[in-house]
Amino acid sequence: MARTPAYKRVLLKLSGEALMGPGGYGIDHATLERIAQEIKAVVDAGVQLGVVIGGGNIFRGMSATGMDRAQADYMGMLATIMNALALQDALEHVGVAARVQSALRVDQVVEPYIRRRALRHLEHGHVVVFAAGTGNPFFTTDTAASLRGAEIGADIMLKATQADGVYDRDPRKHKDAKRYDVVSFDEVLEKKLAVMDATAVALCRDNNLAVRVFSIHNPGSLVEVIMSGRGGTLMNSGANS
């Protein structure tokens, strides 16, 4: 008997780095195809899925040296549009209807972000890929994901990362780092846990949008998290729930 998904509507935050695969730059076709297949599996199960995608595999505004920060951030937003188009293409190749909506106007290429139109796409079973962050410099794509998740009324925000959850210290540097199964937003802010920027965390907290952090690099992890409602680290308003 087919399982019933744990969530009906999901906002997936996918970093640009997730598309690199084993490479150090750009988009790895095999990785992109695997992610598209996993998205297809959850969409076929009846899940409505919105995706906010980053651009760090192409250009990261925050790390651009000697450049005006706002200018660099706009360049980073354009990189997210490139990634969104690549994901849309991969999804359509596996038979999933996908729409790209951008916070920056690039009307010849993608739709502008319009909340009510995005909701209609989701209700029709289309994946909506949100590009260009919030459309404003100085805001991360994590903040954009928190904002879009709240706007579309997502049951949960899934943050696909390099790590398999939230740790009290960098597990790459500290072998004794502790991974949380559940952690409150307030604890994330108080301990300055490096998982999302403070604006994104506060936005999720204030809108009661739970976040589950998991590793996208484990094949099948996206499907398992959405179907079971388990895995990685759950961040919410009360760490005991």
Please provide a written account of the structure.
The chain is of the alpha/beta class and 241 residues long. It has a single domain (9-236), classed as Carbamate kinase (3-Layer(aba) Sandwich), CATH 3.40.1160.10. The chain contains 7 helices and 9 strands, in the order βαβαββαβαββααβαβ. It has helices spanning 29-44, 69-93, 115-123, 141-151, 185-190, 198-206, 221-228; strands at residues 9-14, 48-53, 98-102, 111-112, 127-131, 156-161, 182-184, 211-215, 233-236. The protein has a 9-stranded mixed beta sheet, sandwiched between helices. It is globular and about 50 Å long. The chain starts with 8 loop residues before the first strand and ends in a 5-residue tail after the last strand. The mean pLDDT is 93.
Structural key phrases:
single chain, 241 residues, alpha/beta, Carbamate kinase, nine-stranded mixed beta sheet, 7 helices
Question: How many E-type strands?
Answer: 9
Question: Per the principal axes of the C-alpha atoms, what is the gross shape?
Answer: globular
Question: Could you report the average pLDDT, rounded to the nearest whole number?
Answer: 93
Count of discrete domains: 1
